[in-house]
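Lab notebook, bench 4. We co-purified these components, and the gel suggests they stay together. Before we commit to crystallization screens, I want a quick structural picture of the whole thing.
Request: model the full complex, all chains together.
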Amino acid sequence: MDIKTFNGDFFIPSNAKTAFVLVIATTDVSLIPGITVAGATPELTHFTPAADAEFLIKGKCFVINTVPVTPTGIPTPAIISRASLELVKIPKFVVNAGSRVKPNLPFIDLGGEPGKDIRRGSMERETADRLIKNGITLGEELSNAFDFLIIGESIPAGTTTAMAVLVGLGYDALDKVSSASPENPKDLKRRVVLEAIKDLPSELLLKLAKLSDPMLLGVAGIALGFKGKIMLAGGTQMTAAAAIIKEFDKEKLKNIVIGTTKWIINDPSSDILSLAKDIGIPILAAWLDFSNSRFEGLKVYERGYVKEGVGAGGSSIYAISKGYTATQILQKVEEIYESITK
Amino acid sequence: MDIKTFNGDFFIPSNAKTAFVLVIATTDVSLIPGITVAGATPELTHFTPAADAEFLIKGKCFVINTVPVTPTGIPTPAIISRASLELVKIPKFVVNAGSRVKPNLPFIDLGGEPGKDIRRGSMERETADRLIKNGITLGEELSNAFDFLIIGESIPAGTTTAMAVLVGLGYDALDKVSSASPENPKDLKRRVVLEAIKDLPSELLLKLAKLSDPMLLGVAGIALGFKGKIMLAGGTQMTAAAAIIKEFDKEKLKNIVIGTTKWIINDPSSDILSLAKDIGIPILAAWLDFSNSRFEGLKVYERGYVKEGVGAGGSSIYAISKGYTATQILQKVEEIYESITK
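Here is the predicted assembly.
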């Protein structure tokens, strides 16, 4: 099977009623020049989560004219998620944890707010509390319909806030988070995080309000409320979500796995395996191979561009667990890629 | 069985994966003194939908200190919906079609806006269009998880906007809609509707933007997008939702039933049976009997107070279809009633 397992076993429940949840948010950290390539310009990063959600659900974007691209024009990993979820046809829910731009779609609102620049500002404690609590309520409600939840994310600069959370919670995480660029701007991220963790409050919720982005709190809340098994579908950011979950309920981790891509596992600039090990959570990775793709914009994944996002890894893993091969997924991705680039 | 059928047959699919959707909204029509009792004062009616949603999901209200009550203190029919849905344990989704007050809960937002006073203002055409389109998208997405949808509503003064829509679409509906009060303020409703339908645009969407409330458009959209069977859970308002659905897709009505209460069927001040017959839609009614209740606030249902709302009839019908009796539902309702009044 085109899935590899790391750091312990996790079995995707067979015949489980499954849903995909995409949690979107923005943080003003993404406006720091050079910190993220999840948008053609820093300002456009605030449109990326809404556009990703629109592309995932409707196959086209409304808040911007095209799909989200990097400054060099490489399209969003949402094309992989959409391809995989078209194969398996499970319900998809968009959850807004705090995005500056709202998608033109029905979405579930958690009552959050867009994240601030963590060097200077902090979320209100009550906003963080509301995000977690509303997330729990949503997770509980989804438990009445589903046994297995795949939770993806879209938030530009989310690896920086993830690193801040991990460091703030005491993990050895400096320089270990990934990037959508092959040139991970580690010095910049480190400077932002070190500035953010100065004078950190000791209370957990205040700490999270200061360091976290809204997506991580929404994801943690949903996972805490959900009664079945959960795949956190993302890269190093999802180790921060798992770390937050662990702070609230250590036992919960038994039902949780991170589902990501080969490109995150193989990323020399980050270390998801050591992060996951420190937290105590297994990882599944979709062993996709885009090296023989007809499209340059997909081939570059093999050179470390994009890597993951919008639950690309987790949705691929789910499609593979349902009998599709990595090759079939690539074919579907190419079909979608062709339709958006012509 | 404690369900009666009118105007044709409808079979609740057995073993269907079922969800309950509560669509909430407000209209400034509810601020017209005397038009509705769905709130202790006209101003408080704007809190009722959010509070109903909170009570349904969490068993308590946050936007107001107590459950919504009529000016004489009779509590919301949400207690019946909560009782029935506690028995059958299906997932519940709150959908905001345009409510002035938002619930402190995760809810699905359709991108609508609170409704205006239909005598003076109109919704923007594009808002009406967005509500229908986002509703369709949501319905389509829910089809990936569910075979049967129960759609309830909470919107004070919704019977007046329902009458306006029905009259505007050419139905003989004047004076035929119900009320949460045993003294249906028919003259006032008639005056409001006759003023609203003056100089009515001929295009369907503009007509609906002028006369409809956001809830009806949201419900119609969800139903239009959903692929399985649907129960519109409400009183005479749901005939207006069905009439809107019929304008867009006549065939769709084959999969739709209205699910309501005995108190709506027996209401001498309204005529749901003739409305449903004109539209061509069957009705199921939960034959609940509160006459021997221990609580005066429930006994008054038998004298025409409250009657229906928040999907009370439809959720009771669903519970009955799963083997619970009307007596068991009353017991559960009394349990909840006792907990909120002590």
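The CA atoms of residues 58 and 105 of chain B lie 9 Å apart. Worth comparing against the SEC data before the next meeting. Chain B touches chain A at residues 17, 19, 57-58, 89-93, 95-96, 102, 104-111, 130, 134-135, 137-138, 141-142, 144-146 (CB under 8 Å).
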